[in-house]
Write a structure and sequence with these properties.
- The protein is of the alpha+beta class and 517 residues long.
- The protein is built from 21 helices and seven strands.
- Strands 1, 2, 3, 4, 5, 6 and 7 form a seven-stranded mixed β-sheet that branches.
- It is elongated.
- 46% of the residues are buried.
């Protein structure tokens, strides 16, 4: 009998030894690997959309000087991302995978940064939760796969947040210097970084422990901001007019949806967003109720560490203050008339917000697995949305690449496209150029293309003699091919009037078919 008992007890002992052999940082390695798989394995499956295609067409040049000179004329962001993108372009070219690679690297690197933020703010549980939210969150994956500034902005926002919480935990000259560098990188990545840093600066100045020591670091950030003013003035809010045409209330409503289901998650429907939100909100609400409970009734932390609960309470207020500054300051500015509040400009503030969610959702409670279970369900839901984007074209970027590749090669045609399709088609179909208003073309083929919704007149002939031969539909990006028996002269004005979408239209054509009129 004793021998039998010894045999039956051996497997649990071996399991404990096996678990003990795993390093404590194995969840970080696993989450970073998962983040890399989600970002790199599907980096090139989606077509470029307008902003991505605009970069290689108009911003990137063989000369770095020419690229930097183009920024005031073409862009509305600081220069750091364009410097990185230029080196990437010179090394790897202008393919989708190549130009998105810096964003994918930044998005993957953000996971260990998020882990460190959670660890500095609270404990290992918060670190795991924060890193997991970043690793699988649809918003974070989406902008890690876009050849624009937002992936870098999220990373530099995360670095600034990490440096900030390290200063608060143990102020020192070295940590202030690191905060100044991280904050400067954040400012050089995206102008909305100033709002996040404003919240951090306010906290540092209010806290007696950091008020005096933070002054040199804050002075550095002010100098960097002042140095950017000439570029801001030259750019003149270029390309931001669309923001004011989008109702402010709609933009505010989109912000939580962006976090839960990503940039294009609205196509999944509000019910999906609600299903993703419910377990996350429940976990956060449960943690908040425990935090606000009376100290005598509040459950002690693991090991009776009362200091951990105090750290967590402070962490909640810190991350809430930084997130509120990053979101509410641009909202107040929008209400005051300086309206640049687009949900995607707030992605930097979503990093401290994720830390806030992580701290609350992992609030310690002995013998209670409800909050971890809710958080696990929420993370699985976020992962499911992220994976859905890889398989459902309806929630991907408009497939302008598919339209370009579906058209027969070697035909000189005129194309009428909504403005958001102009840059992608010029990228995928080299030789197309905008047709001036007073010009005409002599052609046998006209293509009308755009993203839904379409006008009722879509599908009608753009000019006498042209008949519809094919309709192409790539999950919301629609193109109509019209062919005439012989070349006909059609004016740019007439072509533009046949725009099939509700957006402004561009007319594209190669130089070889243009005629004077």
């Amino acid at each position: 009998m004793p021998a039998v008992s010894a045999v039956t007890e051996a497997p649990p002992a071996r399991r404990e030894v096996a678990v003990a052999r795993l390093p404590r940082w194995w969840p970080l390695a696993a989450l970073t690997a998962l983040a890399a798989v989600l970002r790199f394995s599907t980096l090139g499956i989606q077509s470029f959309w307008y902003d991505e295609a605009f970069t290689p067409l108009h911003v990137l040049h063989p000369s770095l000087i020419a690229t930097l000179e183009a920024l005031p004329r073409t862009e509305n962001s600081p220069p750091l991302w364009y410097l990185l993108e230029w080196f990437d372009y010179r090394l790897l070219g202008t393919g989708e995978y190549a130009l998105r690679l810096p964003s994918a690297i930044a998005g993957t690197a953000l996971v260990p940064v998020a882990w460190a933020i959670g660890r500095q703010l609270a404990d290992r549980a918060a670190a795991i939760a924060c890193a997991a939210l970043i690793a699988v969150g649809p918003l974070f994956v989406w902008y890690s796969q876009e050849a624009r500034v937002y992936g870098l902005f999220m990373l530099t926002s995360g670095l600034a947040t990490l440096a900030f919480v390290r200063v608060l935990r143990e102020p020192s000259g070295r940590r202030y210097a690191v905060f100044a560098i991280a904050g400067a990188l954040c400012l050089l990545s995206h102008y909305f970084g100033v709002f996040i840093l404003a919240g951090m600066a306010a906290w540092l100045l209010v806290d007696r422990r950091t008020r005096r020591g933070s002054l040199p670091a804050l002075a550095v950030l002010v100098l960097v901001g002042l140095a950017l003013l000439p570029l801001i003035s030259a750019q003149g809010a270029r390309g931001t007019q669309w923001i004011g045409k989008w109702a402010l209330t709609s933009r505010i409503e989109e912000i939580p949806g962006y976090y839960l289901t990503g940039y294009s998650g609205a196509h999944l429907g509000h019910s999906i967003a609600v299903l993703v939100a419910l377990p996350l909100l429940a976990a956060v609400a449960l943690g908040l109720s425990r935090m606000l409970a009376r100290p005598a009734a509040a459950p002690p932390a693991a090991g009776g560490d009362a200091d951990l609960l105090a750290r967590r309470r402070r962490a909640v207020w810190i991350t809430l203050a930084v997130t509120a500054a990053g979101v509410l300051i641009p909202l107040v500015m929008a209400l005051a008339g300086a309206d640049y509040l687009a949900p995607r400009n707030l992605v930097g503030a979503m990093v401290p917000f994720s830390a806030l969610v992580a701290v609350l959702a992992t609030w310690p409670a002995p013998r209670d697995a409800l909050a971890p279970a809710l958080l696990a369900v929420a993370l699985l839901a976020l992962l499911a949305v992220t994976v859905t984007v890889d398989f459902d074209p309806k929630v991907q970027r408009g497939n302008w690449r598919g339209v370009a590749h579906s058209l027969p090669r070697g035909i000189q045609r005129a194309m009428v496209v909504n403005q958001l399709g102009s840059a992608p088609l010029r990228y995928y179909m080299p030789g197309l150029k905008p047709l001036p208003s007073g010009s005409s073309v002599r052609t046998r083929e006209i293509v009308l293309a755009g993203e839904e919704p379409l006008r009722e007149s879509a599908g009608r002939s753009p000019a006498p003699g042209f008949k519809l031969v094919k309709k192409i539909d790539f999950s919301g990006v629609v193109a109509y091919r019209f062919v005439a028996p012989r070349p006909e002269v059609v004016s740019a004005r007439r072509l533009r009037a046949r725009n099939i979408t509700l957006l402004h239209a561009d007319v594209l054509a190669p130089e070889s078919i243009r005629t004077a009129r």
